Amino acid sequence: MKRALSMAALIATVSVGVASAQVSGTDHDMSTNEPTGQICIFCHTPHNASPAVPLWNHTLPTASYTEYASPTMDSASAGPLQNGTGVSNLCLSCHDGTVGLGDLVNNGPAGPPTNAGTLIGGPGLLGTDLSNDHPINIIYDEAVDAELVARATVVLTLDLFGTGADELQCATCHDPHNDNNQPFLVIANTNSALCTTCHIK
Fold it and tell me: Could you tell me if residue 126 is left (phi over 0), alpha (psi between -120 and 50 degrees) or otherwise beta?
């Protein structure tokens, strides 16, 4: 009996976690454009994915970007943002406005989505000039910037990426699967809580 109750509690906990972090009903839910109503296919596919991970299914951009630059920025670039380098390139495959929202690597048996050639618009359109946006694809290193919180503390709340687990990418601050804190923020930014996770102010 005790084991059955434990299993029920575990299932309830997992169900709540899944329900609170789902794409359905958010701006990332484009299932009405897909012949069989699939949601995940716009980013992921279990078969015939692109070389990008995780099982990436959206055509990657080939655009060149103007990235944020400032004489007061101490962080180094994690490498070129173009051509699939870095997690942020996955986000830009829709948000830079150069690749159709439904332009997929693997369309599935039902054929391409109806929005295959539709480009993003509105506030989700970042374009290729990222010079006025928070820097992305950079190395998080408090040793070169004394105004940054220690990385060991930051990673308790936020994800850093790359082989050194030290790259700040779009997904450091945004969770594409969860819009509880709009716009898809990892944590609420009340009283600048997200900003001060990294920045000493």
Answer: alpha
Provide the token pair at 176. Answer: 């594409």
Residue 11's region, left for phi above 0, alpha for psi from -120 to 50, else beta, is alpha
When pLDDT is cut at 50, 70 and 90, the band that residue 11 belongs to is: very low
Q: Which residue has the tokens 């779009």?
A: 170
What 3 state SS string does the chain have?
CHHHHHHHHHHHHHHHHHHHCCCCCCCCCCHHHCCCCCCHHHCECCCCCCCCCCCECECCCCCCCECCCCCCCCCCECCCCCCCCCCHHHHHHHHCCCCCCCCECCCCCCCCCCCCCCCCCHHHCCCCECCCCCCCCEECCCCCCCCECCHHHHCCCCCCECCCCCEECHHHHECCCCCCCCCCECCCCHHHCCHHHHECC
Question: Residue holding tokens 């959206």?
Answer: 58
Cut 0.90: pTM above it: no
Query: Which of 40, 42, 41, 60 has its CA nearest to residue 50?
Result: 60
What is the average pLDDT value for the chain, to the nearest integer?
89
Say what the pLDDT of residue 13 is. 37
